Amino acid sequence: MRSRYLSRVSRQGVRPTTGKVLEALFDILDGYVDWEGAHVLDAFAGAGQLGFRALERGADSVVFVEVESRVASGLRGEVVARGVKERVVVLRGDAREVLRRLTGPFDVVFVDPPYSCGLAPAVLDLIGERNPLAPGGFVVVEHHHKEALPHQTGALAMVRSERYGETSLTFFRLTGPNPEWRNPA
Questions:
Q1: Is 90 exposed, middle or buried (0-12, 13-18, 19+ CB in 10 A)?
Q2: Which of 64, 139, 135, 127 is nearest to 100 (CA)?
Q3: DSSP label at 87?
Q4: CA distance 48 to 17
Q5: Could you report the per-residue pLDDT of 75-118, keeping only the tens digit for each?
Q6: Which segments of the chain are extended strands (E)?
């Protein structure tokens, strides 16, 4: 069922996170995030791979944000097919507009906009300004390795960046006395 779903959304112009990057991302986060009870925001959800993987790890809830109505509709169908309707909200809209309304708190925020749009820095600025993170929370941006991201924006500081071919994963945390990469527990 999953492969048919991913194949269908890929034909709709969605760029699903590759298996290698997906595994690396969750291998990194597993060392720092207590998924049991976590609340996750998957902005630019597309196929929803990041949010669904968080649910598989034990997250309590995921909010998916998707601008394309056909993709959001497919995502809603996949939520029902996976039997996770009570743990998921799918919001259709521009991630920047939705982020202005959401309050959180979220333990993990995934930001994976289309590579060619240059939206990641603007969304990071908005998250840094609005601060929807729970204490110890992370923002993870999946972006083209040539796209420059700020080292700090609002309440967020970059703490780690990893490259996988053309893709980079960049991790941000709230600034404060110790914004470095460490386990918040």
A1: buried
A2: 127
A3: G
A4: 9
A5: 999 999 999 999 999 999 999 999 999 888 999 999 999 887 88
A6: 39-43, 61-66, 88-92, 106-111, 133-144, 152-153, 156-164, 167-174
- Give yes or no for a contact between 36 and 27, defined as CB atoms under 8 angstroms apart: no
Q: What is the pTM of this model?
A: 0.87
Q: Which helix (H) or strand (E) holds 7?
A: helix 2-11
Contacts of 51 (CB under 8 A, 6+ apart): 40, 42, 45, 59, 62, 63, 64, 88, 110
- For the four alpha carbons of 142, 143, 147 and 153, in that order, the dihedral sign comes to negative
Domains annotated for the chain, with CATH where assigned, are: 2-10+18-174 (3.40.50.150)
- Give residue 140's region: left, alpha or beta (phi > 0; psi -120 to 50): beta
CA distances from 154 to 69, 122, 125, 128 (A): 31, 11, 6, 4
Contact 132, 109 (CB under 8 A): yes
Q: Tell me whether residue 4 is exposed, middle or buried, using C-beta atoms within 10 angstroms of its C-beta: 0 to 12, 13 to 18, 19 or more.
A: exposed
Residue 32 tokens read as 């720092």
Count, in order, helices (H) and strands (E) of the chain: 6, 8
